[in-house]
């Protein structure tokens, strides 16, 4: 039973390009969460999704960032027109759903904007 | 400042000593969890304590929770060099909900 899979592990983008980060939840988990971690800091919540539905996007910047979790396939965090300040580690977690324990994190995608 | 702040920010100890770190939070919680993160790696779940629990043990780990003070502590006994990592507390208002993390305590265990 594979854990939460994130890819790519490392991503380098030039300023102005788009970054797409993928997250496949654990088998049986239908809820996905994205977090961002700046160097030497804790994780900051970005967005919480269920299949085809955004539950909570209160931590997501209003511009350039979007997330989806389609019926089929992985969850995608998309950052348009990246800037240097977007450089961070982006972690995805999945869970079976509200009221359920078993929150599991992926290994993260480290985005570097040059 | 944010929900979930760890204290101290950094801790350096000798192998075999105990390491204690604290976490404070601001709003009511359902669960509090502790995670470990090795440099450049993902998070490893260590232990979860529910709001109606006061103490929990797992191997060399001991976690306490004081909801009246909105604080928790993590004790690592008989530390090893392999315990060198950053430790984060995270709270939720309901299981399966988003987690709010503190800034972490960086622990260095010297052999």
Summarize the structure.
The complex is a heterodimer of chains A (114) and B (111). By secondary structure, chain A is an all-beta fold.
**Rg result of chain A:** 13 Å
Task: Look at the helices and sheets of chain A and give the structural class.
Answer: mainly beta
Shape summary of chain A: globular
Oligomer: heterodimer
Q: Give the overall shape of chain B.
A: globular
> Distance between termini of chain A?
36 Å
Content of β-strand of chain B: over 45%
Work out the helicity level of chain A.
under 10%
Structural category of chain B: mainly beta
List the helices and strands and how they pair.
The complex is a heterodimer of chains A (114) and B (111).
Chain A: E1 5-7, E2 10-13, E3 19-24, E4 31-37, E5 43-50, E6 53-56, E7 65-68, E8 75-79, E9 88-95, E10 104-105, E11 109-113
Parallel strand pairs in A: 2-11
Antiparallel strand pairs in A: 1-3, 3-8, 4-5, 4-9, 5-6, 7-8, 9-10, 9-11
Chain B: E1 5-7, E2 10-14, E3 19-24, E4 31-37, E5 43-50, E6 55-58, E7 61-66, E8 71-76, E9 85-92, E10 100-101, E11 105-110
Parallel strand pairs in B: 2-11
Antiparallel strand pairs in B: 1-3, 3-8, 4-5, 4-9, 6-7, 7-8, 9-10, 9-11
């Amino acid at each position: 039973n594979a854990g939460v899979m994130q890819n790519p592990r490392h991503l380098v983008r030039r300023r102005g390009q788009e970054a797409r980060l993928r997250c496949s939840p654990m088998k049986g988990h239908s809820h996905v969460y994205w977090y961002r971690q700046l160097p030497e800091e804790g994780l900051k919540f970005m967005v919480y999704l269920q299949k085809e539905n955004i539950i909570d996007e209160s931590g997501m910047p209003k511009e350039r960032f979007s997330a989806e979790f389609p019926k089929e396939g992985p969850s995608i965090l998309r950052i348009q027109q990246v800037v240097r300040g977007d450089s961070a580690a982006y972690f995805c977690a999945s869970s079976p759903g509200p009221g359920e324990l078993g929150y599991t994190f992926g290994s993260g995608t480290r985005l570097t904007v040059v | 400042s944010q929900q979930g702040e760890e204290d101290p920010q950094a801790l350096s100890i000798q192998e075999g000593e105990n390491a204690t770190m604290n976490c404070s939070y601001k709003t009511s919680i359902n669960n509090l969890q502790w995670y470990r993160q090795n440099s450049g790696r993902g998070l490893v779940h260590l232990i979860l304590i529910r709001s109606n629990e006061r103490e929990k043990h797992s191997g060399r780990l001991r976690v306490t929770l004081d909801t009246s003070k909105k604080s928790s502590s993590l004790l690592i006994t008989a530390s090893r060099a392999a315990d060198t990592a950053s430790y984060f507390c995270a709270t939720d208002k309901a299981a399966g909900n988003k987690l709010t993390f503190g800034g972490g305590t960086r622990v260095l265990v010297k052999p």
